[in-house]
Description:
The protein is of the alpha+beta class. The chain folds into two domains: about 10-125, Aldehyde ferredoxin oxidoreductase, N-terminal domain (Aldehyde Ferredoxin Oxidoreductase,  A, domain 1), CATH 3.60.9.10; about 140-185, no CATH class. Helix content is about 30%, strand content about 25%. The protein has five helices and eight strands; from the N terminus they run ββααβββαβββαα. The protein has helices spanning about 30-35, 40-55, 105-110, 150-170, 170-175; strands spanning about 15-20, 25-30, 70, 85-90, 95-100, 115-120, 130-135, 135-140. The strands form two sheets. Strands 2-1-6-3-4-5 form a six-stranded mixed sheet.
Amino acid sequence: xxxxxxxxxxxxxxxxxxxxxxxxxxxxxxxxxxxxxxxxxxxxxxxxxxxxxxxxxxxxxxxxxxxxxxxxxxxxxxxxxxxxxxxxxxxxxxxxxxxxxxxxxxxxxxxxxxxxxxxxxxxxxxxxxxxxxxxxxxxxxxxxxxxxxxxxxxxxxxxxxxxxxxxxxxxxxxxxxxxxxxxxxxx
Length: 187
């Protein structure tokens, strides 16, 4: 994909599924009729959560490896002013569905890479981050940034990823900052 070709009706019909426990990454196809029926990140999140966790909802520990974290875009992501991403999962506070939206370039970059969202499951053995560059998707070691605050982590990753981007295309790492989705201290 990688931004090449057409994205009919605002959807690629492709989600990344990442298992942090095994570092397995695969592409899951979603039928466009499902995308149309559950328009946007929140609607699709409810559908995926129900399909994957619905029958065992009460037994799922919200902070355990069986819960899933969804990072989903909608059909307007990438079109002005559509730059939102919905982050959803099972809430440890309410035991219900939690969903929050964030702005920025991440959703647009995810769409440009050819994906409508990410399904994250499992627990990484050691600190990790997800690297997405078009069809190249990898769970990478983040031990060297573990314990840093959010801003320092952002600075460190931005510097590293710009250097990596510059190796392939020298001006890209200078002119274009990587799009990073992150949170501050949690827990």
